[in-house]
Amino acid sequence: QFSKIVIFTDKDVFNQCLMRRIKDGQELILIDEGVGLYKRDALKHYLLKIIYPYASMILFGFRYSYVNQLGVSRRIDRILARLPELIEGSVRQASIEKFPPTYDRMKYDDDGQKIMILTSPFVEDYGISKTGYLRSFGRLYCFLASLGFDIHIKPHPREEQSYEVYGHVMDRSLAIEEVDLRGFRYIINFYSSSVIDLLARGYPAEKILTVNLLGATGMDKIFSGTQLYESIEQFVDSFRIS
């Protein structure tokens, strides 16, 4: 019998089955991984929370709970989060602790021309047209190159797309936690969960450029402190080097 059980999500069926079998005296701990803890429930999510348990019982004989924002289950005893101050909603019924408690926070005061682009698996995970994605990405890249930036591309580990034609490509197998951020004047993302790690490590929010590429969506609370651009067009028209 385990005294502590650690999970990374209370959304999938297996974990929900596991949570129903936890006995008194066993502590259930949820660890922050991705953006799930930082989401916000809208009206449609509350409606789905009502519908799912009944529908799943009728269809599958199992009561499955709909989960949008992670960490809302009353069975969770503790939550370890990188940015607990940004968690809202029903999650606060559990004990939230900062994890890890300290980061080796560095100074990122570089004014050079080095810039990083964090890509996302739009084609693999969201079924976006590869041609459409590369067209938008290419336009962004060409604009940055015209400003004289030394562009470093960090592909997402799940991506199959090759970026070698654009120049410097970083090791896709590396997690963002393993990347040395020093020397990068800006970091561009497309509503990536990696922004959580960037902020937790002390990288300046105003140097994080969040671009809404191909209609991607994100959690406002996480990205609100970064420079937000609702489209490639807006970025090209309004971005100014600071």
Structure description:
The strands form 2 sheets. The chain has a 6-stranded parallel β-sheet. The longest helix has 18 residues, at 43-60. Helix 6 (220-223) links the parallel strand 9 and strand 10 (227-229). The model has no long low-confidence stretch (mean pLDDT 87). By secondary structure, the chain is of the alpha/beta class. It contains 7 helices and 10 strands. The chain has helices at 13-20, 43-60, 122-126, 130-146, 194-200, 220-223, 232-238; strands at 4-7, 27-31, 78-81, 95-98, 114-118, 150-154, 168-169, 186-189, 208-211, 227-229. The radius of gyration is 20 Å and the shape is globular. The termini are far apart.
Task: Furnish the topology, listing elements before pairings.
Elements lengths: L3 E4 L5 H8 L6 E5 L11 H18 L17 E4 L13 E4 L15 E5 L3 H5 L3 H17 L3 E5 L13 E2 L16 E4 L4 H7 L7 E4 L8 H4 L3 E3 L2 H7 L4
Parallel strand pairs: 1-2, 2-3, 3-4, 5-6, 5-8, 6-7, 8-9, 9-10
* Straight-line distance between termini: 56 Å
How many whole angstroms does the radius of gyration measure? Answer: 20 Å
Mean pLDDT: 87
Largest sheet: 6 strands, parallel
Poorly predicted tracts of residues: none
- Report the total helices: 7
Q: What is the molecular shape?
A: globular
Count of DSSP strands: 10
Secondary structure class reads: alpha/beta
Strand order of the largest sheet: 7-6-5-8-9-10
Share of residues in strands: 15-25%
Q: State the order of secondary-structure elements, H for helix, E for strand.
A: EHEHEEEHHEEEHEHEH
